[in-house]
Specification:
Helices cover 77% and strands 0% of the residues. The longest helix is centred in the C-terminal third of the chain and has 33 residues, at 57-89. The radius of gyration is 19 Å and the shape is elongated. By secondary structure, the protein is mainly alpha-helical. The chain has helices spanning 7-29, 33-44, 47-50, 57-89.
Length: 94
């Protein structure tokens, strides 16, 4: 977006980001981390064009933070599975 965008265009961008954030949060709370990441990424694609709009910064921060949590949600089951596989590979004592 060029520097001379209107207040209405700022509002439209903020509405879009908030809608994507809300939908991503719904997915995240439901345990659907992959779905959440899709919503967050679709919003974060606009960052290059709108990063100069200070009114959007808090929403972008929330999107990045929640995307990080979604990735963590994906990693936790993998780590648990790896630990279980390792424990099962250990010889039994006594």
């Amino acid at each position: 977006m060029p520097q001379n965008v209107t207040a209405g265009e700022h509002a439209d961008a903020l509405d879009f980001l908030r809608e994507r954030l809300a939908r991503g949060n719904e997915c995240l709370l439901a345990g659907n981390a992959r779905g959440a990441i899709v919503y967050y990424d679709s919003a974060l694609l606009t960052f290059h064009h709108t990063r100069h709009i200070e009114a959007l910064w808090d929403t972008y921060r929330a999107l990045w933070t929640n995307k990080s949590m979604a990735h963590q949600q994906l990693r936790d089951p993998v780590k648990a599975q790896e630990a279980a596989m390792f424990a099962n590979s250990l010889p039994l004592s006594g």
